[in-house]
Amino acid sequence: DKSLPLFCLPIGVKDIFRVDGFPTRCGSRLPEEIFRGTEASCVSRLKKAGAIVIGKTVTAEFAGPEPGPTRNPHNQQHTPGGSSSGSAAGVSAGYFPVALGTQTLGSISRPAAYCGVFGIKPSFGRISTDGVFVFSESADHVGIFFSDLSLADLVLATIVDNWNSDQEEAEESLSLGIPSGPYLEQATTNELKRFERVVQTLKAAGHRVKEIPCFDKIKEINNCQLKMATKEFTNLHSQWSSQYGSLYRPRTARYFTRGGEITDRELEGYKAQRHIVREQLQLTMAKHSLDAWICPSATDQAPKGLQSTGDPVMNIPWTCSGLPTISVPYQDT
After folding, report:
1. Is-above-0.85 flag for pTM?
2. Which of 1, 47, 125, 140 counts the highest number of beta carbons within 10 A?
3. Is the pLDDT of residue 186 over 70?
4. Which of 85, 87, 92, 107 is labelled catalytic?
5. 318 phi and psi, to 5 degrees?
C-alpha cells in the first residue's frame, strides 16, 4: 500500500521525543507535566505512514552523560553506549527493527557500533527536532537505528523532506579516505588493528582507499563542540535548573556551572567553528575525489560497566561538521 509504506512497522522512540499517548521523562526525575506538548513531527510522519510506536526507549538523563539502566544485549556487563542507549540496544535485541535517537556528540554512531546495528545520522537539520528535548540546538541531529539496512530508504523518505529515493547502481569501486593523524590516533591500538582488517577487506573488494591527513587540530574541535553544547544546554535549562536544581543527577548538574562560565560571544565562536570544519572536510574530499570517509565509530569495543556510556571522540568532528554519517556493523574474525 503506497499510502502506508511503513504499515505495522514497530518502532522504538528515544524518551526525549514527545509521542501522543506516552509520557515523556527524558531519563530525569523532573515532573512529567513540564514535558507535555505537541508530538514530534518526525514521529507523527512515521505513524501516518503506518508505523506503530511500541514503546519509549531509555535515554541517558536529558541525552547527556548520566547513563540509564540499559545493558548491552551482547554482554550485559557492558554499556550499550549512549545517550540513545535503549534505542540501540532495543534494535540489537530484536524488540523492534527501527528506533529513533539523537546525536549531540556521538549518541547515534557510538551505541550503534557497541550494539552491532546500523546507525544513520542525516545532515544537520534534515530531520526536524520540533517536539524533541534537545541537548544543544546547534549540535543535535535526529538519527535512526536499523537492524536491516533495507528499511532505511523507506523510513528516511518518510521523515526527510526531498529525500532522493532513486536507487542508482552502486559504483563497483569507491574512493574512500582514511582521516589519518591525531584524530585517528584517539582510537586504541586494538581498535586500529580491527580497522586495518576492515580496510584490507575493502581493498580486496576493489575499493580505492587512501590515507589523508585530516583534523590536525582535533583537540580544538572536540573542545569547541563540547563547550557549545554545554552553553546551549545551560541556556535551555535555565528556568528548570533554578526551580528543580536538586532533581538533576550530578554529572548533568555540572553542566550548569561550566555553561555559566561561557559567554554568549564565546558561544558564537564555537558555533562558527562548525562551518569551518564542514568547509575543510568538503574541500579535502573534492581535492582527493573522495566518495566518503571511513573510520572507527568508537575508540574500542563497548567498555565494561554501566557507569559510563563510552567515549564519543571518534564521532565529534563528524557531528560538528553536520555532514551525514552511517555506522556499519562488521564481524571481526
Report:
1. yes
2. 140
3. yes
4. 107
5. -70, -35
